[in-house]
Amino acid sequence: MLSFLPLVALNDGFSQALALWAAAVVMAGDATLQFVAGALADRFGRARVQLVCGGLMCVLLPLLPSILRVPVLWAVYLYVLGGVAGAVYTLSLVASGDHFSGAALLRASGLIALTWNVAGTVGPIAAGVAMRLVGNSGVAAVLWLMAAGFCVVLVRSAGRGAE
């Protein structure tokens, strides 16, 4: 998201400063809404909050190309999107702590970081190709596929009794 958001914003007519500000808004949502996600996870369960965050990403991402054209809404939209995307990662780390301890926890945390980094490498490549082929909506489509894949995995693991 952060790799291509400034490019998407520039393609939509944002100034360079405003395009970079958009990325800062996403990071602010990521940083500040983790407390809310944690409190909600404590109250309603981590897996449920993760699924809601993944679902929100699937609802919000298709709006990306059009919402940037609405000056009143784009900052709030990006703030919330950053928060729900960040909560998916943070709550995944929490999940590993629920299921593993000791060396197994270190391995699980390493695998989560590795997965995040692979997605951080493959995602921008796929988003760049998609952006070149179909424009700004290509970035949203690639991110949506990743979010939908996360939701599918989470629902399947919940079906096997994982919390």
CATH topology: Growth Hormone, Chain: A
User: What structural category do the secondary elements indicate?
Assistant: mainly alpha
Could you give me the name of the CATH homologous superfamily?
MFS general substrate transporter like domains
From the 3D coordinates, which CATH architecture would you assign? Answer: Up-down Bundle
Helix content: over 70%
Number of strands: 0
Q: How much β-strand is present in the residues?
A: under 5%
The level-1 CATH class: Mainly Alpha
Largest sheet report: none
Distance linking N and C termini: 27 Å
Query: Mind telling me the C-alpha Rg?
Result: 16 Å
| Mean model confidence by pLDDT | 87
Uncertain segments of ≥5 residues (pLDDT<50)? none
**Element pattern in H and E:** HHHHHHH
Number of domains: 1
Q: What is the 3D shape? A: globular
How large is the count of helical segments? 7
Task: Describe the structure in your own words.
- The relative contact order is 0.16.
- This protein has one domain: MFS general substrate transporter like domains (Growth Hormone, Chain: A), CATH 1.20.1250.
- The chain is 85% helix and 0% strand.
- The protein is built from 7 helices and no strands.
- With 163 residues, the chain is an all-alpha fold.
- It has helices at 5-11, 16-44, 46-60, 64-67, 74-99, 102-134, 136-159.
Topology of this structure?
Elements (H helix, E strand, L loop, with lengths): L4 H7 L4 H29 L1 H15 L3 H4 L6 H26 L2 H33 L1 H24 L4
Helix pairs in contact: 1-2, 2-3, 2-5, 3-5, 3-7, 5-6, 6-7
